[in-house]
Amino acid sequence: MIVRKTRAELEKMRRSGLLVYEILQALGRMVEEGISTWDLEVAAVKMMADAGAKPAFKGYYVPAAGERYKYVLCTSINEEIVHGMPNPKRILKGGDIVSIDTGVSLEGYFGDSALTVPVGAVSEQTQKLLDVTRESLELAIEQVREGNRLFDICGTVEEHVVKNGFSIVREYVGHGIGTQLHEEPQVPNYVDRKNENPRLREGMVLAIEPMVNAGRPEAKVLKDKWTAVAKDGSYSAHFEHCVAVTPEGPWVLTRP
Ligand code: MF3
Ligand code: CO
């Protein structure tokens, strides 16, 4: 069942969304050669505490890992797709890309967003990977309208990524969001004809999160049980926003 939110509920999700935005912007500004992903985690923990927000990821049980996640951020470097774990020994260096993914809840309503940041100068091909992944999210956001269907979102991401010669990760998908971090429906970044294709209705909120590999699409999970990486070692980018369906069109809750 897809839970639709009232205006008042969307306003609550908006508060979480803007906090996530502020945190990600601050972390993005911290990114430079020589800092560790643990430095980012420490800063995020403090910002959440200062705002009186609950971290959405810390303590979240993921069946595939068989345990609860231990951090407030996922920090995924280079070939890491998602669920990389903050670590004082992981020092960023020039030419890296780092995906920072986080979520919070305020008054029981969740916000969830991610971005991928270059460390210093990156190669032209890596910059294109970031650009195309971000563009695919922006194009998909435009599809979040009453009367459209879920596949309009999925297909828009897929088309833009494939057209530009990159590949869509299939093992991880976006999701509905509200009083739970993950709600129905799943939001794959490709058209999955085995799935239902619900019509988009006012009050639905979708976390759209393209995960795009520069090389082959296949993912594998490292022995740490969490870190998903591109099997071929190619770089991977990830951007995410929560978007509400409103009569006025798409409302991106996770940015001003
Ligand atoms: N980043 C995932 C998402 O955007 C959720 C993180 S799973 C967790 O949906 F275990 F890290 F919390
Ligand atoms: Co998400």
Compact description:
The chain has 256 residues and is an alpha+beta fold. It has helices at 7-30, 37-51, 124-141, 150-163; strands spanning 54-55, 61-62, 67-68, 73-77, 80-82, 97-106, 109-118, 167-168, 174-176, 183-187, 205-208, 211-213, 219-221, 228-230, 236-238, 241-246, 249-252. Strand 16 (241-246) and strand 17 (249-252) form a beta hairpin.
Textual characterization of the structure:
With 256 residues, the chain is an alpha+beta fold. The protein has one domain: Alpha-Beta Complex (Creatine Amidinohydrolase). 28% of the residues lie in helices and 27% in strands. The chain has helices at 7-30, 37-51, 124-141, 150-163; strands spanning 54-55, 61-62, 67-68, 73-77, 80-82, 97-106, 109-118, 167-168, 174-176, 183-187, 205-208, 211-213, 219-221, 228-230, 236-238, 241-246, 249-252. It is globular, with a radius of gyration of 17 Å. The relative contact order is 0.19. The structure holds 2-amino-4-trifluoromethylsulfanyl-butyric acid and cobalt (II) ion. Residues 112, 175, 207, 209, 240 line the site of cobalt (II) ion.
